[in-house]
Amino acid sequence: MGGKKERTEGLGRALIRQQNRKAIEAKEKGRAIHLQNRKVLESYTEINEIDAIIDKSDEASLLLSSGAASDAGSSDLLISADDAGDMTAEERRQAQKEEEALYASNLKVPRRPPWNSNMSVEELDANEKQAFLEWRRKLARLEENDMLVLTPYEKNLDIWRQLWRVLERSDLIVMVVDARDPFFYRCPDLEEYALEIDEHKRTLLLVNKADLLPFNIRKKWAEYFHQHDILFIFWSAKAASAAIEGKTLIQEPESQESDLPGLDTRIYGRDELLTRLQAEAESVVAARERPSSSSSTTSEKRQVTVGFVGYPNVGKSSTINALVGAKRTGVTSTPGKTKHFQTLIISDELVLCDCPGLVFPSFSSSRHEMVACGVLPIDRMTQHREAVQVVANRVARCELERIYNIRLPNPKPYEPQNRPPTSYELLRAYCVSRGHVASSGLPDETRAARQMLKDYIDGKLPHFELPPGMDTSDTEGEDSGSGSDEEEEPEPSSGSLPDRRELEDLEEFDSGLKGSKVVKKRENKKEGSHKQHKKPQRKKDRSWRVGNDGGDGMPAIRVFQKPAVNFAAISASGRG
Ligand SMILES: Nc1nc2c(ncn2[C@@H]2O[C@H](COP(=O)(O)OP(=O)(O)OP(=O)(O)O)[C@@H](O)[C@H]2O)c(=O)[nH]1
What Pfam family is a match for this entry (predicted)? Predict the structure, then answer.
């Protein structure tokens, strides 16, 4: 008997030892993969397909071995360059719109492949890589269509993995968008993906930076969201942080009446937002548990999780900091600094989760627009005139003149009188007034462009989009005060303001030389801190000339799909 017992114990010990060995091996493997993945998380929006294949040859071989690349050459999506070459600009734009509408549904957020807790770490890793490469391959195929321009998007799987985790663990998903152009930052497919994970999950649009939106425009957006069944809240992380310090940033209008009963146009305060988020998340949990509620005897409260997702720079970290009431995550105006998701326990009932900013794939914007909207870093700007043209198209001429204390040349008699200034005119006027001269002796357009884009992103240059189907005539005659009691001070002039005649003289002048005089005069008068650039000016350089007749290498004015907001009309209707 004793021998049998010993044998059984021996077998038991052997089994335990085997289990432990397996556990240690699995842990080691997991650690190896973990270490391998622990390289600093970086956002890859600029990487191209070739780079991806060279850099990640292991992933490429995975893709090839799966046979997934076998149909990569099929051309059912293609409109060839030859077909497109015969079209007029208008026809091309129309065809592009049609193609974009046709393939809009192909712009998906990458899905995490199905998984379960029995899978090994390697298996999970390989499946995720495979699914991700498949997703990238589909997008690459879209790019083969000459009519479709896919803007840079996040190509680092590890960043998408962060999103998958946040989506899976959150009951309520808060999509943070910039109030000045909510639909640029909204990703409807993400809402769909959340529902695929769990049909009860809800997505709420947190319309941040509402302090930068005039009240009447906020009201229009509220009506639009309400009519289209979009769950939304207006919010200003900046105002909420100011409130924590006892300051008031937003002066709300006394009456916020609307034709739609129950319309919520308020900008929420910190406590209100926390309460509402918790209530929304609890309603998700309640809906999820409802079918089995008959078997549940207790009504005890569960901890709910609210995940914050969105493009870089929309204010996710600022929002979390304002909600937590202390600085817990880094905030800067450089997009893409949050690299890993963070979990913050607010109370026994509420947990917040901050996801790194993600650039979702889209057709609808240009790279310049993405720089101007703050989702691609200004440092990566290669064509500054194109990016500044976005600013020139969207900020009223009078606002640019007032805020920068500059004079922009009037449109020529043969041009539409309401055309926006060209980026060239704007950059030149700015450089002249500030004395920004590059070492070449030419206006330092890059420096000017960087400053203007920063001002545009930070809200110093006012701009906003109207809800779809609405134009400025819908907002005229209404109070459009921004609600913010922060009055924009015009920038101090660096010297006396050149009058229009002086500027027009400059157009006719060999302005490299004359420009340098203007520059020096201004520098001496005010901006003592600026370096004196002593390099001789190029006499015959024509890059200072104003005009868009094409003779000076200036790009034609770009027509953007979204109509520029007529700020002049809005300003005239009472905006400060
Ligand atoms: N005017 C205004 N500016 C804001 C507000 N919230 C955030 N900002 C500014 O927007 C910029 C980006 O804010 P972050 O909180 O770092 O944005 P994020 O979404 O966490 O960015 P990533 O880490 O890149 O994903 C910073 O310059 C903030 O000061 C707001 O409510 N109003």
Answer: MMR_HSR1
